[in-house]
Structure formats: C-alpha cells, structure tokens
Amino acid sequence: MSLKITDWAAEDRPREKLIQKGTTALSDAELLAILINSGTKQKSALDLGRELLGMVNNNLNNLGKLSIADLEKLNGIGPARAVTIAAALELGRRRKLAEVQDVVQIKCSKDVSDIFQPLLSDLAHEEFWILFLNRSNKVINRMKLSQGGLSGTVTDVRIVMKKAIEYLASGIIICHNHPSGNLNPSDSDNKITQKIKEAGILMDIQLLDHLIIAEKDYFSFADNGLL
Fold first, then answer.
1. 67-82: b or e for each residue (b if 16 or more CB lie within 10 Å)?
2. For residue 102, with 0-12 CB atoms within 10 Å meaning exposed, 13-18 middle and 19 or more buried, which class applies?
3. pLDDT tens-digit readout, 40-53
4. Shared domain check, 199 and 133
5. Contact 52, 26 (CB under 8 A)
6. Burial of 106 by CB count in 10 Å (0-12 exposed, 13-18 middle, 19+ buried)?
7. Sheet-wide strand order for 206-213
8. CATH code at 93?
9. Total domain count, the chain
10. At 199, which CATH number?
11. Is 75 part of a structural domain of the chain?
C-alpha cells in the first residue's frame, strides 16, 4: 500500500510544493493530485493521478478529450472529482483561446488556425464554425453553426448567409475539425465549400477560406488553391 500524501515530507506534498516552488516544479501527476484532492483508502491522490495519465499514455491532449463518464471509469474518481478535472481542463483550453484574442485582423490562414485550434483540436466530435469579417478583414464575431458526430456535421447554407447579413459581414471564413486527424477534405467538405462560396457571390459576401482543423495541424482551402 502506498503512503498517503499526508505521510510525506511537507516539501514533497503537491500543494506545499506548489506554494514553495511554483506550478512549474510539479509533474503532471502532482497537478492532477491537487485536483483530485484526496485519495481512497487504497490509493493516494498521486497514485490516482498517475493512473489517470496512464489511461491516456501520459498525453494531456488525450486527457482533455475524456468525457465525465470516461474519467469516472477509473476506480477512485467519482462524479465530483471527474467534474473538477473536466473544469480545470476546460479552463486550460479557454486560456489558450484567450491568448489569441488580440488577433483581430486576419492576414493569413495561420491567424484563423490560432483562433480555432484551441476550440476544436481535441474534440471527439465535429463542429462547424463561422468567422465574420468586415472589409478590413477584422473579426466582427464568430459562432458555432452546428455540432455533429465522429464523422460529420450538418451545415445549412441559408443560416450561414442569414447570420453574415445580420452581422453586416463583408467576408466570412468557415472552419470545422476532423477528429480522425485526417486533414484531406471529403467530398462533402468540397461541396459545402462551393455552395457557401456561390451563395456568398449572390449576396456580395466573400468566402475567404475554409479551414479543417486537426490536433496539431490544419488544412486551408485558400492556401491550396481550392477557392
């Protein structure tokens, strides 16, 4: 049976270690142990943190993809602890998103990727988003149009144009993710891109790009000459 965290020397306990040495001094398992808060009679919080990381091959990106139900599969992680971990991971995701809020003018596909990568890269389902731009390619707003399953999401061109008109957008950029990691556009991706482009021409709203987001990379229709 492993020692409880309270049996350790004070400088080795995750909370005390964080206070004394800062967050960067802690391992991933130690940070998780703080979130887990306390262990069971059989396991310490650090043991649970290590087991949780073991479930995802020590990959924090994969940890962020786990649902509440997935987290609860680990013996010792109940609903309260699972919710705490999920909330912390979501805060981390939102922090990444906040870091790119100052990018208000789109100059290249990388600027778009910087906005959507934190939102979409580690999702287990597809989401379809729209970025609305003014004539200077400055971001007016963004919205999630639809959410689907593992292999697709439904996109209504009429809603895309309706929202663009409501925001008085001169241009739009559409974006969705491929949870599979495959960045190649599907036939449906190509078809919806052309439909939105053609509808935009009629409404004098230019489709500037369509990005497909994967975990560590993206595909730009504009960069690849598909618009």
1. eeebbbebebbeeebb
2. exposed
3. 555 778 888 888 88
4. yes
5. no
6. buried
7. 139-147, 127-133, 171-177, 206-213, 218-220
8. 1.10.150
9. 2
10. 3.40.140.10
11. yes
Residue 70 lies in a domain: yes
My answer on whether 44 and 129 are in the same domain is no
Q: Is the dihedral of CA 219, 220, 225, 227 positive or negative?
A: positive
Residue 171 makes CB contacts below 8 A (sequence gap 6+) with 132, 133, 134, 135, 137, 205, 206, 207, 208
Select from 97, 115, 137 the last residue of a domain.
97
| Boundaries of domain holding 47 | 5-97
More confident of the two residues 123 and 178:
178
Plot region of 108 (φ>0 → left; ψ -120 to 50 → alpha; else → beta): beta
Query: What is the token pair recorded at 182?
Result: 């495959």
Q: What pTM, to 2 d.p., does this model score?
A: 0.62
Place of tokens 């004098």: 204
- Dump pLDDT digits (tens) for 108-162: 999 999 999 988 988 888 999 999 999 999 998 889 998 876 555 668 899 999 9
User: Locate tokens 């190649």: which residue?
Assistant: 184
Q: What's the angle, vertex CA 22, arms to CA 19 and CA 25, rounded to 5?
A: 120
